[in-house]
Structure formats: C-alpha cells, structure tokens
Design a protein that fits this description.
The protein is about 35% helix and about 20% strand. By secondary structure, it is an alpha/beta fold.
Length: about 400
C-alpha cells in the first residue's frame, strides 16, 4: 500500500457474487473501466478473488471484489465456494450477478446475504441479450458489460446504499486540540525500511484529525522527550513489544497505552479482549492457541506473532502449549479446537470482518484477545493501558 492510499481496512468492500459465467468479472471491468479481471466463456475462469481499489462517489474509497463463481461442483468447486463465502464475511455491499432469471441458487444466496444484514443489489447481466425485464425492484438493475447499458445507473445504485460505518475512534475521542501524544516506535530489524507501519500511520492521522500534536520517538529517546515536554503530555502510545520498558520510563502521572490496545477498541471489542487475555492464566501443556494475523504478504508486524508472543506465553504460563498460526483471509474453520485465540490489531481488516471473527469466537465460547492486550496482561500493565479510555473517554472495561 502506498502512503497516499486509503488502507483497505478503511474502504467499503463491495463484492460480486453469482454463478460461473454470470458476467461478474465483465461487470468489474465495466465498473472500473479497466481490464482487471480475466473474462472468458469457460465456466470457472475466476479461481481466486480479484480486488480493485477505487473511488466511487458518493461513498468514497471502496474495494471492488470479483469472486469465483459459486455453483461449482467437485473438490475444486468446493474450494471456490469456500473462498467466495470467506469474502462474504468482509462484504459491506453485495452484488448478485444473475444471467437472465433468478434460480433457487441465487435465492439461497439472497437468504444468506440477508441473514448477515448485508445490503445487496441484484444485477441482471448481459442485458444486450436478455432484454426482457420489466418489473424491477428498487435494488435490481439490468446491465450490459458489452454495450455499457445500465453501468452508470448501477454505480449510482451502489452509491445510494449507506454502508456500515465504524463509529469507534482510535484516539480522537480522547485527545483535544493542542493535546500532545507521544508515540513510541522501536526501529529494530523487524521495522520496515523507510516507513512506519499502518497502525502507527493511522494513529498519527487520527491525532491530526482532532488537532492533537503527535510526537514520535524511539524508546531510547523517550525519557528525554518526556523530560522536555513534561506534564504537557496527555498520552504515551507505544508499540506493544516494548511495553514493559515504556511502562518503566513513563511516570505514573502520565497516561499510557499501546497501538494494539487502541486497535482492540477501534476494530473490535475491548471487553472481550480483556476477558480473553485473562484466559492466559488457564493455559497449560495441553492447550491449543491460535495466533492469527490479518495480512500475509503485506505482513507488517514482523515476527511478533510467530516468535515473540509464543515465547512470552511459554514464559508466562511455564508451559508449552501448541500454537497454530494463520494469516490473511484465512482465519479458522475449527474454532472450537482452540482454548484461546490471539489476533493482531487487524489494521488491514475492515470492521465487518474483525467483528465476524470476534463473534465467531464469542458464539463458540472461545476466549479471544489481541496481541497488545495479551502482552499488557502478561506484563501486569493491562490496567494501566486501559486507564486512558476511562480517564479520557469515560469508558470503563
Ligand atoms: N453479450 C454479453 N456477454 C457478456 C456480458 N458480460 C459477460 N459476457 C460474456 O459471458 C462470459 C462470462 O463472462 P465472465 O465475466 O467471465 O463471467 P464470470 O461470472 O466472471 O465467470 P466465472 O469467472 O467463470 O465465475 C464471457 O464470454 C463474457 O464475454 C454482457 O454484458 N453481454
Ligand atoms: S499483522 Fe495485523 S496489525 Fe499487523 S499490519 Fe497486518 S493486519 Fe495490521
Ligand atoms: Mg470471473
């Protein structure tokens, strides 16, 4: 992701579903006015979801997702159906591409989409061939990717849907204009070259949005920075990996938390994360822990999930539990296999997907927390890292 782009987690996700050959990929190309997805008359051309970021007014930044056709048979077909269904978990607006007539297959799809409270549009494709629709409902439209008939109206129809909005704030509900927040960013070998990682960028942006001043330093310069700024500092926000050190350096009268704890509140459910962290007390040699990260090849959080966190847990619990790691779109299908789930901050995931993961765990009674909350708990500083929410935003956990 370039520094100029809206992060994918902040974009409205619009996904195209339907049978093979319904014209989904052609529709994506027509809407984006680019040849992004491969189109052919062979059924099952799209095997992996295709993502395209764009601006779609009046919504703003969106991601359009083309999914594999889901009327597939056989093992390969099952895999495609699975991939398409995974996409549903992060879909803010669904488009069902229908060639000619709705069948029981599309009707079933509509039921699933409705049960997830996802707003949807039915696009009758190939209107240049099937020009026979008269009584269209409000959320239905005829489109042709060949003649471009209905494409602009289709975009308008999408634009009129008010998508699910994340009302949670990262820090801007805790800081006022002119308040100073000190951000502590370690620059070790895991830090990406020449830039900051997304959670750090987003916190800085949120400070700017509310007129707060963010001062960024490494842990080696923290004491000096705090000495200079003194009591003007409203909040210290640190990378979780150096939580204990920053806890020691930051005087008790200055509030302190971590990027990851901020994300636990912003993207998810901080109460659930706190309860999940406490489950670390019950971990033993027979326990199985899922450590899940929201991104794969864009992996930005270094080896914290795969190495540092497991080592901390072994030390804290004095046991050797089994760890399973997943990343990206893949979360888990066998959630009840686990005694605890520890998720990253999920900055690359949209709120719908993060909420889906959290509710999957909650519904199955599996404790779930996130990196920063778990690390704070193991270091005995969870209370301190939650205190800013109470003192500055009036929220108690
Ligand atoms: N005449 C006409 N043909 C179209 C239109 N849209 C798509 N097609 C044709 O229908 C066939 C399937 O189109 P795709 O866009 O690949 O369909 P898909 O839904 O992505 O198919 P899978 O990837 O296999 O699931 C291709 O031969 C397209 O050229 C249209 O609006 N009009
Ligand atoms: S691992 Fe998680 S928190 Fe880190 S960059 Fe990826 S999605 Fe964001
Ligand atoms: Mg396709």
């Amino acid at each position: 992701m370039s520094m100029n782009n809206t992060p994918s987690g902040e974009r409205v996700h619009i996904a195209f579903f339907g049978k093979r050959n319904a014209g989904k990929s052609s529709l994506l190309n027509a809407v984006t006015n680019q040849n992004i997805a491969v189109v052919s008359d062979i059924k099952g051309t799209t095997t992996d979801p295709v993502y395209k970021s764009m601006e779609l007014l009046p919504i703003g930044p969106v991601i359009i997702i083309d999914t594999p056709g889901i009327d597939d048979n056989g093992t390969l077909g099952e895999l495609r159906v699975k991939k398409a269904k995974q996409i549903l978990n992060k879909t803010d607006i669904a488009v069902i591409a229908v060639e000619n007539e709705m069948s029981s297959f599309e009707n079933e799809l509509v039921e699933i989409i409705k049960s997830k409270n996802i707003p949807f549009i039915v696009a009758y494709t190939k209107s240049d061939i099937y020009n026979n629709k008269t009584d269209l409902k409000e959320n239905e439209i005829c489109v042709s990717s060949v003649t471009k008939e209905g494409i602009n109206e289709f975009k308008e129809l999408i634009g009129n849907i008010k998508p699910f909005e994340n009302k949670n704030k990262l820090v801007s509900d805790m800081l006022k204009k002119g308040d100073i927040a000190v951000l502590v960013v370690p620059i070790d070998k895991a830090a990406p070259k020449g830039r900051l990682i997304l959670p750090q960028q987003q916190v800085i942006r949120d400070c700017l949005d509310c007129g707060a001043v963010s001062v960024v330093c490494k842990e080696t310069e923290l004491k000096e920075t705090l000495d200079i700024l003194g009591e003007k500092v409203k909040l210290v926000i640190t990378d979780s990996q150096i939580f204990p050190l920053v806890d020691k350096i930051t005087p008790d009268n200055i509030l302190m938390t971590s990027f990851s704890v901020l994300f636990a509140r912003y993207k998810g459910n901080i109460s659930q994360a706190v309860l999940g962290a406490r489950q670390l007390n019950n971990i033993n040699d027979n326990s199985k822990i899922l450590i899940s990260e929201g991104c794969t090849h864009h992996r930005q959080c270094g080896d914290i999930g795969t190495e540092k966190l497991p080592n901390m847990i072994r030390k804290f619990t004095g046991s050797n539990p089994q760890f399973v790691f997943t990343s990206g779109t893949e979360f888990t299908e066998n959630i009840s296999d686990y005694d605890l789930i520890i998720h990253c901050g999920g900055c690359m995931l949209n709120e719908r997907e993060m909420k889906y993961r959290l509710s999957m765990a909650k519904d199955s009674n599996i404790p779930m927390t996130n990196y920063g909350t778990a690390i704070a708990y193991m270091n005995g500083i969870l209370e301190r890292s939650l205190k800013p929410f109470y003192v500055l935003a009036g929220q108690k956990y």
